[in-house]
TrEMBL record:
It comes from Flavivirga algicola. Its main location: membrane. The keyword Membrane applies. InterPro entries: ABC3_permease_C, MacB_PCD, Macrolide_Exporter_MacB. This is FtsX-like permease family protein. It is found in: Cell membrane.
Length: 794
């Protein structure tokens, strides 16, 4: 019996090749997209789950409460780890890691002196006992307890020396410290929170970042993270309650209240408050994958029910010969299973072909190795059976209900023949999903475009940011600045900690204003830069004057946001004193600048002060003339290299860096565009199949209309009318859904574009045009055909 089902199924597929091809292609696109989404979800869900006793490992984070505002930091004060380990009995091991970028390393490889610029992780010795990142030689006994020692990854060893046999070799760090390699780590999994390739003993940190290496309680830096391996069966809530007493004991009195939290490793990759991805996005992609499968299944149902008329006599004969409804149902289901199986094979091929592009889009390295797991096999079998059942059950029920007498006489009613109302509902669902995806993509595009191209309050065009070595002294800095200013293509030069809109290298501090007795309930962000900072970045001065060149911080600029927070006008701020960094800095406000976006558009504008501090500068900003830019960059490189012999010249354009802040959103937008296009393509296949059926069904009607004088345009309008009604109904349903989805997404932005009605109208019109183009070919073909051919049987 089963063999017969499959034989008949194959014959029907071969007999109606076009409809079978449409169904297979639609389902294949759905399967292929779902497979790629599965790989993406599996990749994200497997982050950091390879460590032993992962449920006991926690990162300790800080919530900074400032009045009604809360800011989240992945760090704790440098002194926290020691107190937590020695004064409490919650953790078996506690270790800090400090991430630092842009270190120069010198080494000898095969008799050749080489240099690299590399990010460094300074780690305490228990770090590799908390996490089980295995060494290449299989031994975990190598430690970084001694100063001037390092562990490298396989990739780093090959990058430096060409092979992994590097234990005992040395390199020079920042032209100063000779470091000995004591171990080689196996390649870190791509699904690890840790991306470093070079780990140096924590004892060497004092030479490069004294604050993070010390025992300070009154500040934090996001470069430092603290991890703990808790004893089994600890109550996280109890530990966090106990930690509430630490700031009272150790931190100086401040309106900036610290609350320390224990973040499980399973949350590190998925908590957007601490820089992780938003799990809502993963759910969104999972739902999109489901929608693509549903749309493809709807195509199948629509086309299959539409074809029921073709098979009515076959079904009538089978019933007369004794077939039961269940036999007909399972026969049709077997046909659906064969088509779905073909589609799955083609979908796997599609996924394989497009996987490199998918990896490039997200800058990840997904492989098909994950497809040969028990989990994926179960997933693909489950989805195959679900799709087969969903796509085949309703048409199977419809066909099995055909009355044999009416079928053999060719007198099936229209509803039985095609289940018109059901098809209309399913088509509306297809159009609704497509309109939601298109409208959402338009609004996402508008927001990202607004974020990148809006007025940021500072100039980002033709600004080059050049990195400079840490701890530069005044003499060397101003010597280099003077030589750079002499280059004809350079208009302005400024040394700074970072650019005005940089979200990295942010130092926030408490503030006490003028004669007020207590600190304010908010912190201020620093933008350390020299006297040419506002001129180079074209930041508008709204009151007062710029500070003048000095060796100490005794004059500062502040932004309008700070005056707003203090309840004063810009003019009232002038010549008032502020106390920063716990009173260590006492300065006079000499000017107020217009607000500028000091971080990306997801964050509100912060109160900011601008002050000079040469030793803290990490970059030089240069406003250059766009003409002859390559020659200008070459001359900048030459002057820079003369000053910093033995270092590596690096630069970036500020406008590109601003755009990079929205890189993650841009990737998700691109993926949304791809899946929207696929949803539309699947929908078009379904529309094409239905139109092909309708034209064949109404070919005689078209002939009669032509004989009676109807034009091609009127016939095309006739066929378009029903679909336009369905699209308008879908638009009414889709608009509030798309509005709600995008409204929730836009809530992440402090500065956002407006949702306008015409975005949804564009989406509806797009679907109308695409549908019209899809149906035009077959309709026009039928309309221009010779009516005699279609009417000659009458």
């Amino acid at each position: 019996m089963i063999r017969n089902y499959f034989k008949i199924a194959w014959r029907n597929i071969v007999k109606r090749k076009v409809f079978a091809a449409i169904n297979i292609l639609g389902l294949a696109i759905g399967f292929g997209s779902s497979i790629l989404i599965y790989l993406f979800l599996n990749y994200n869900l497997s982050f950091d789950n390879f460590h032993n006793e992962i449920d006991r490992i926690h990162r300790i984070t800080t919530e900074e409460h400032r009045g009604n505002d809360v800011e989240y930091s992945t760090s704790v004060p440098p002194a926290f780890a020691k107190i937590f380990k020695e004064d409490y009995s919650y953790a078996e091991k506690v270790a800090k890691i400090v991430l630092q970028d842009g270190f120069i390393i010198d080494f000898n490889a095969s008799g050749t002196e080489k240099k690299l610029k590399q990010d460094i992780a300074f780690v305490e010795e228990d770090f590799f006992k908390i996490f089980n990142f295995p060494l290449l030689n299989g031994s975990n006994n190598v430690s970084l307890s001694a100063p001037n020692t390092a562990i490298v990854t396989e990739e780093m060893a090959v990058k430096m020396y060409g092979d992994t046999d590097v234990v005992g070799k040395t390199f020079v760090l920042e032209n100063d410290k000779t470091i000995k390699i004591t171990g080689v780590l196996k390649s870190l999994p791509k699904t690890s929170f840790l991306k470093s390739e070079l780990f140096v003993s924590f004892q060497n940190l004092t030479d490069f970042f004294e604050f993070a290496a010390g025992e300070n309680w009154n500040g934090i830096t996001d470069n430092l993270q603290c991890f703990a391996l808790l004893y089994p069966k600890q109550s996280i809530a109890k530990i966090e309650t106990t930690l509430l007493e630490l700031p009272k004991k150790h931190r100086a009195s401040s309106k900036n209240r610290h609350v320390y939290k224990l973040q499980p490793m399973s949350d590190v990759h998925f908590n957007p408050d601490y820089g992780g991805i938003n799990p809502t996005l993963l759910w969104a992609f999972a739902i999109i994958g489901m929608f693509l499968i549903v749309i493809a299944s709807i195509n199948f149902i629509n086309i299959s029910t539409a074809q029921a008329f073709y098979r009515s006599k076959e079904i009538g004969i089978r019933k007369v010969l004794g077939s039961f409804k269940r036999d007909l149902f399972w026969q049709f289901l077997s046909e659906t299973f064969i088509i779905s199986s073909f589609a799955l094979i083609v979908g796997l091929l599609f996924a394989y072909l497009f996987l490199p592009s998918f990896n490039s889009l997200f800058e990840i390295q997904l492989t098909f190795e994950g497809l040969w797991s028990i989990r994926f096999t179960g997933f693909i079998i489950l989805i195959l059976f679900i799709v087969s059942f969903l796509s085949g059950s309703y048409p199977g029920i419809l066909i099995s209900k055909i009355v044999p007498v009416l079928a053999l006489k060719g007198k099936l009613s229209h509803n039985v023949r095609g289940s018109t109302n059901t098809r209309k509902v399913l088509v509306v669902i297809q159009f609704t999903v497509s309109i939601v995806l298109i409208a959402s993509t338009i609004i996402m595009s508008k927001q990202i475009d607004y974020s990148i191209n809006a007025d940021l309050g500072f100039d980002k065009e033709s600004i080059v940011m050049v990195t400079i070595p840490r701890g530069i002294d005044d003499e060397k800095f101003y010597s280099l600045k003077g030589r750079l200013e002499q280059i004809s293509g350079v208009e302005h030069v400024s040394g700074c900690l970072s650019s005005p809109g940089a979200s990295e290298n942010i130092w926030t501090t408490n503030i006490k204003f003028h004669t007020r007795s207590e600190d304010e309930e908010f912190n201020v962000s620093s933008k350390l830069g020299d006297e040419d900072y506002i001129k180079t970045f074209n930041i508008e001065l709204v009151a007062g004057r710029n500070f003048i060149k000095r060796d100490i911080i005794d004059e500062v600029l502040v932004n309008e946001k700070l005056s707003e927070k203090l309840g004063l006008s810009a003019e009232d701020m002038l010549n008032k004193q502020i106390y920063l960094n716990g009173g260590n800095i006492k300065a006079n406000i000499v000017g107020v600048v217009k607000n500028f976006h000091d971080e990306n558009f997801t964050k509100a504008i912060s109160p900011v002060f601008i002050a000079p501090n040469t030793i803290a500068y990490g970059e030089i900003g240069l406003k250059i003339n766009h003409n002859g830019i390559n020659n200008t960059l070459s001359l900048i490189n030459e002057k820079w290299s003369e000053t910093f012999k033995g270092n590596i010249f690096e630069y970036r354009f500020l406008d590109e860096h601003v755009a990079e802040q929205y890189e993650r959103e841009q990737r998700y937008l691109n993926l949304s565009k791809v899946f929207s296009g696929l949803a539309i393509l699947i929908g078009c296949l379904g529309v094409y199949g239905l139109i092909l059926f309708f034209v064949n069904q109404r070919i005689k009607e078209i002939g009669v209309r032509k004989v009676l004088g109807s034009s091609v345009r009127s016939i095309l309008t006739l066929f378009s009318y029903d679909f336009i009604k369905l699209i308008l109904i879908a638009g009414v349903i889709a608009t509030p859904i798309a509005w709600y989805i995008t409204e929730q997404w836009l809530r992440e932005y402090a500065f956002r574009t407006d949702i306008k009605l015409w975005y949804f109208i564009i989406a509806i019109v797009c679907i109308m045009l695409i549908t019209f183009v899809t149906m035009s070919y077959q309709t026009i073909k039928a309309a221009i055909a010779n009516p005699i051919k279609s009417l000659r049987t009458e």
